[in-house]
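Consider the tokenized backbone below.
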């Protein structure tokens, strides 16, 4: 009898905890929807200033993608990124060249993050990781970066050495920060991560800029 009561109380506690988790997740989703509404209003107000809109939209998409990974709602970042790009293209009338570049950014970003994942350098949190593919939230960060190259980061055009140095310096800061936020982990020692990510970004950031330059010249 006592054992049955004990099992019953445990079951009640488990059920209460499960209900709490569901309710907590619903509240998080409601908060995110409110954030999206606020973001949309801000973007509409700023849309007449293309450069300001581009910079602020980039940082909003960047941090919401990371926040979505933190709370394990991985689709939030990519959805916000899509919204930002649609609003961005609403402002930019002739965006055919940029369309091509953003598609390249998507596939090149997928290649970079998936390679780091399969080399056991960076282990992301996300749905596709179990298939040895980098998660969409991580790839969307590269698309966010790509959306700035023709606008707020236009000064990087043809500055390949500067881009390599900036890539080498910024990549460890970004990956170590993401690790501290709990959205990824390292499969090897910190020193090796620092070296490999610096080399990767020192190579690929200039490649992104070179591709954008060639698209603009075509």
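A designed sequence for it:
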């Amino acid at each position: 009898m006592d054992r049955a009561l004990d099992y019953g109380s445990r079951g009640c506690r488990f059920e209460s905890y499960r209900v709490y988790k569901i309710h907590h997740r619903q509240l998080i989703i409601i908060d995110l929807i409110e954030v999206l509404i606020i973001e949309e209003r801000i973007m509409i107000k700023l849309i007449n200033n293309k450069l300001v809109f581009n910079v602020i939209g980039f940082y909003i998409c960047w941090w919401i993608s990371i926040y979505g990974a933190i709370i394990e709602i991985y689709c939030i970042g990519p959805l916000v990124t899509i919204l930002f790009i649609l609003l961005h293209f609403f402002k930019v009338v002739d965006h055919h060249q940029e369309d091509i570049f953003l598609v390249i950014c998507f596939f090149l970003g997928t290649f970079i993050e998936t390679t780091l994942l399969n080399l056991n350098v960076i282990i992301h949190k996300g749905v596709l990781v179990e298939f040895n593919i980098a998660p969409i939230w991580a790839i969307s960060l590269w698309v966010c970066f790509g959306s700035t190259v023709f606008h707020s980061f236009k000064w990087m055009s043809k500055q390949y050495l500067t881009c390599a140095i900036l890539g080498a310096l910024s990549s460890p800061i970004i990956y170590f920060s993401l690790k501290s936020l709990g959205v990824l982990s390292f499969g090897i020692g910190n020193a090796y991560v620092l070296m490999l990510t610096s080399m990767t970004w020192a190579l690929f950031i200039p490649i992104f800029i070179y591709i954008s330059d060639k698209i603009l010249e075509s």
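The chain is about 75% helix and 5% strand.
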